[in-house]
Amino acid sequence: xxxxxxxxxxxxxxxxxxxxxxxxxxxxxxxxxxxxxxxxxxxxxxxxxxxxxxxxxxxxxxxxxxxxxxxxxxxxxxxxxxxxxxxxxxxxxxxxxxxxxxxxxxxxxxxxxxxxxxxxxxxxxxxxxxxxxxxxxxxxxxxxxxxxxxxxxxxxxxxxxxxxxxxxxxxxxxxxxxxxxxxxxxxxxxxxxxxxxxxxxxxxxxxxxxxxxxxxxxxxxxxxxxxxxxxxxxxxxxxxxxxxxxxxxxxxxxxxxxxx
Length: 260
Description:
Layout: E1 5-9, E2 15-20, H1 31-36, E3 41-45, H2 61-75, E4 80-86, H3 88-99, E5 106-110, H4 118-131, H5 138-147, H6 155-164, H7 167-179, E6 192-198, H8 203-215, E7 219-224, H9 231-234, H10 236-247, E8 256-258
Parallel strand pairs: 2-3, 2-4, 4-5, 5-6, 6-7
Antiparallel strand pairs: 1-3, 7-8
């Protein structure tokens, strides 16, 4: 069974956007971007085993990359292809660029972990078995949502999907996330690549961003001031403006500084 894809905007536009969500959320996280880019052709997938793609198991980063590349080949013929990925979705995007270095024209990699955490990954299964019942408690879910800057209007969707996610899927998503490493083929990607990370994110996230930039001459990087893990949720207006400036080859906004 194929994954769920929300298709919006002007299908006749010569620019195709694809927005790839992070773990623990699904395509709805991009609603503010979908509204903003309504004049363009937009694709918003729910990754395998998540959101409205729960029947399309299992989830792996490589499998997701294969599926999304096939969709872009079909939908993006003769179009400028712009792909934006957040967190888990950014890891999928890194894998896509590594598997097909010439298909995507512009790639925004937002908060991608590329340094494996094998010890933490080994603890995931026992920890999830112990904590999984907490997911059904709204107070706990609200605390989790706050770490992603998910607002009140989006919380019902977040909570609904949280309680619907299978334990095995959550374990697989977290293990894939924590064991992902930068593919050597990433250096061959020919896209215009923008790597972003929040100033308030963990050190390992900033080091991962630097690894990406060092691995490919096509990469430019920005640290986003006063932002944690969830740039598009925290300030969607600034996020959209940054995409506009990047696509127009303008200088970055004053709120950011170049990652070195």
